[in-house]
Design brief:
heterodimer; A: about 325 residues; mainly alpha; two-stranded antiparallel sheet; about 75% helix; globular; B: mainly alpha; MetI-like fold; about 0% strand; Sugar ABC transporter permease (chain B)
Chain lengths: ~325, ~280
């Protein structure tokens, strides 16, 4: 008997709480609706211009589709992938891209850290240094590339004249070195800025305490600063690695890919825009996308890089 | 480091001064070099000297007389401004929602925009080339504006949501308690606090659009929509037989000027924008 009354009471309580919840969440739901409404335009643009095309590019990569022979368009399955992956030119470009990525990011990490320390700690002219360091970041890459090209052009350039009778941009090794130099010049400041943000997180007290305990400058750097900065360093490395992997502008202006200096982006551009081969071009696009995804995965899984914003999500 | 935390004697100041000088020289040399080339006369262009022996404005006169450059400059300014404006408006809306409102899918949105920020742009070239050709967007302003907005959006969403999170939103409530309407509270209290962040983000987005080369040479084919970085790489000089080095240098200097001005005037803001967006997220 009592159980029925109990159940009734329980039921009533439940309905009440439901009504209550509905009333409470009225504001919550309005908030959600507003949020979605505010985000919708940005999401739509990103999906339409980045999401849909990447799927379309997978579809194109499965076809023979050459704009010079548009009638021969047909579905060929994975044969484009076989063509690209068994081609030496692709692997040469892949090797060049990997080399440039590894070398530039490594050098940038060291130089960027030095630059970050200088900008963080400098006693004189901090504003001037920061302003100067920002210029490579802001300047149009193509402009910088032209500057480097002319600098190394025999006769015209101030650098080419340092070495007698040489045209460094016509040989593979020296061209690659110049491409890397141009990349490093352009993006070290960006690396330095990201690292500087990490430096700002290092508590001053900790450094002072370490100094009191007799730690040398190097020990303070490796034992105190680096551990605290680790997340910032990993984020900077991830950003720069993915960015370096898409190197294009510098190569286009400096060598146009001559003497086997093409990066994968350069090769894709050549196949697509110069060769008008949409099938092969798309196959390369997809492969680059996969390579970038793998790099990002490695960073996030193995090194435990927190995606910007995710630490904050975790706290919630 | 040791010097700065413990003592800051004269020696330390000297050492820092030298380091600073190295940084400044390292950062400026390529810029000064291209400027130097742009001021050289045709006769001295190939002397390899870092400082011009004879100064001339001839190169600048040449490029402003050609339609090719003026047209490309107009395209660059127009396309970059429109893209920036739209990206900042859409990004502000989304960033406000992320910083202020609670809704499911927030994490996914942040994740997706992060994904796009790291996207290899070349992966979009093939599909966009084909899609734009079919839709008639190839070689139009809109054909460049759309990808620019897409790649500027993640940047604006990040930097702005970081800025917005720092705004003391309780001030809004306080203003309303003091009798301000929602609109007034937003306009008089929140908007002035948010404006610097929005402005900084706009500069970063503009630099991105102004800088782009890959989309500019892949999705355009004529003067109709070719931007300056793309036009530069196709520049052959006033006549076919003339060495375009001087003209290219002059054009390069012209498109560098806005960036130099931004950096000079808004150095502090650009630094805070880049660092807060990228690391504090």
């Amino acid at each position: 008997m009592t159980s029925v009354a109990d159940r009734g009471a329980k039921h009533r309580a439940e309905t009440l709480s439901k009504v209550d919840k509905a009333r409470l969440s009225e504001g919550k739901r309005a908030e959600r609706r507003l949020a979605w409404l505010l985000c919708a335009p940005a999401v739509l643009v990103m999906v339409a211009v980045a999401g849909y095309p990447i799927l379309y590019s997978v579809w194109l990569s499965l076809q023979r589709y050459d704009l010079k022979f548009p009638d021969e368009r047909e579905f060929v399955g994975l044969s484009n992938y076989v063509t690209v992956l068994s081609n030496e030119i692709w692997w040469t470009a892949f090797g060049v891209t990997t080399l440039i990525t590894v070398v530039t990011v490594a050098v940038e990490l060291v130089l960027g850290m030095a630059l970050a320390l200088i900008m963080h700690r400098t006693l004189v002219g901090r504003g001037v240094v920061r302003t100067a360091a920002l210029i490579p970041y802001g300047i149009v890459t193509v402009v910088a590339a032209f500057s480097w090209r002319y600098a190394w052009t025999p006769g015209t350039g101030y650098l080419a004249n340092l070495f007698e009778d040489s045209a460094p941009l016509t040989e593979r090794a020296s061209s690659l070195a110049i491409i890397m130099l141009a990349e490093i010049w352009k993006t070290t400041p960006f690396m330095a800025l990201l690292l500087m943000a990490g430096l700002a997180l290092v508590p001053e007290d900790l450094l002072k305490a370490a100094a009191m305990d007799g730690a040398t400058a190097w020990q303070r750097f490796t034992k105190v600063m680096l551990p605290v900065m680790k997340p910032a360093i990993l984020v900077a490395l991830l950003f720069r690695t993915l960015d370096a992997f898409r190197v294009f502008d510098n190569i286009y202006v400096l060598t146009a890919g001559a003497n086997d200096t093409s990066s994968v982006s350069m090769l894709t551009y050549n196949n697509l825009i110069r060769g008008l081969n949409l099938g092969i071009g798309s196959t390369m696009s997809v492969l680059i996308f996969v390579a970038v995804a793998i790099i990002a995965f490695i960073f996030v899984k193995l090194f435990g890089t927190a995606a910007p914003g995710s630490s904050e999500e975790g706290r919630r | 480091m040791a010097e700065s935390t413990i003592g800051s004697g004269r020696g330390a100041k000297w050492r820092w001064g030298v380091l600073d000088l190295i940084v400044v020289v390292f950062a400026l040399i390529p810029v000064l070099w291209i400027a130097s080339l742009s001021f050289k006369t045709t006769a001295t262009l190939t002397d390899g000297k870092f400082i011009p022996r004879e100064w001339t404005l001839e190169n600048y006169r040449t490029i402003f007389q050609t339609d090719q450059f003026v047209r490309a400059l107009i395209n660059s300014i127009g396309i970059a401004l429109i893209s920036t404006l739209i990206a900042v408006v859409l990004g502000t809306m989304a960033a406000y929602a992320i910083a202020r409102l609670d809704f499911p899918g927030k994490g996914a949105l942040v994740g997706v925009s992060l994904l796009i920020a790291m996207f290899p742009q070349v992966s979009l070239i093939s599909p966009l080339f084909d899609i734009e050709r079919r839709l008639g967007l190839f070689d139009t302003w809109l054909g460049l504006i759309l990808p620019y907005i897409t790649f500027a959006l993640p940047l604006t969403i990040y930097t702005l949501s970081a800025f917005f999170k720092q705004i003391p939103w309780d001030l809004e409530k306080a203003a309303k308690m003091d009798g301000a309407t929602q609109g007034e509270a937003f306009r008089k209290v929140i908007a002035p606090l948010a404006a610097p962040g929005v402005f900084t983000t706009a500069i970063l987005a503009f630099i991105f659009c102004w800088n782009d080369f890959l989309f500019a040479i892949s999705l355009t084919s004529t003067e109709r929509s070719r931007t300056v970085p793309a036009a530069l790489s196709f520049f052959t000089g006033a006549s076919q037989f003339e060495d375009p080095t001087g003209a290219i240098s002059a054009a390069a200097v012209v498109i560098t000027i806005p960036i130099i001005l931004f950096v000079l005037f808004f150095q502090r803001r650009i630094v805070s924008g880049l660092t807060s967006g990228a690391v504090k997220g």
